[in-house]
């Protein structure tokens, strides 16, 4: 790592409020060149942290959205056999069908390896993948290389990417996987930090709206029957909705009339629970 890169430290993004502990773990992870594993409930800013790092350090961002059916090779590269077959049948392509490398396309990890400049590689929701995928992926990221079997070629990373891995903790990760990452749990923001987050998104927000909306939001999150509690992004969108409504009045929330519950609660049973609570003035 160059002196210039060592001096480039992460201190937050234009839309990302960062606490001191998280800033430290991000920067020490980059210095140690290890993956950073982030856990926390949905909506706590795990994914957005990678965007903020890329923005702050002026690095390209490459996102691998993990799917349950995904194989590691798909994240490394794909051999486009269909296009090669069509080229051989119709003969109207400029590609040389005898050169298989012309039909190799890099997956997201492969793109991060061959990039000319250091990138931030976000591996989102790793807990959706099976254990073999997780452990084999960490082997590749440790070695910073992988083989393309079809052309007997080894791809070595030009630059070691900054690797951010997120998990919603829906499935346990293997001990070998955990042992090869730095770890941070992003707790749900306390009300004071939430006010800071809201003000970053709405610099000119009316203070009465800020205080009233944040208090109501945390009361809504207290419903024990709710399966998916509203998260930070729901609060931001809720305030955006209220700001866009010319008929909205802050005093309506104070009186217990909570508008746009569908912005906060995305599952029908949760929405019904919230509706009943509001109608009974449980807020």
Question: How would you explain this protein's 3D organization?
Answer:
This protein has 283 residues and is α/β, with parallel strands linked by helices. The longest helix is centred in the C-terminal third of the chain and has 14 residues. The protein starts with a helix and ends with a helix. Strand 6 and strand 7 form a beta hairpin. It is 45% helix and 13% strand. The strands form three sheets. A five-stranded parallel beta sheet has the order 2-5-8-1-9, with helices on both faces. Strands 3-4 form a two-stranded antiparallel ribbon. A two-stranded antiparallel sheet has the order 6-7. It folds into two domains: 183 residues, P-loop containing nucleotide triphosphate hydrolases (Rossmann fold, 3-Layer(aba) Sandwich); 89 residues.
Key features of this structure:
9 strands; Rossmann fold; alpha/beta; 283 residues; elongated; two-stranded antiparallel sheet
Reading off the top of the CATH hierarchy, the class of the largest domain is best stated as Alpha Beta
Strand content: 5-15%
CATH topology name of the largest domain: Rossmann fold
Runs in which pLDDT lies below 50 for 5 or more consecutive residues are 1-7
C-alpha Rg, in Å? 23 Å
Classified in CATH, the superfamily of the largest domain is P-loop containing nucleotide triphosphate hydrolases
| Helical residue percent band | 40-55%
Listing every helix as H and every strand as E from the N terminus to the C terminus, the arrangement reads HHEHEHEHEHEHEEEHEHHHHHH
Give the integer mean of the pLDDT values.
90
How are strands sequenced across the largest beta sheet? 2-5-8-1-9
What's the N-to-C terminus distance?
53 Å
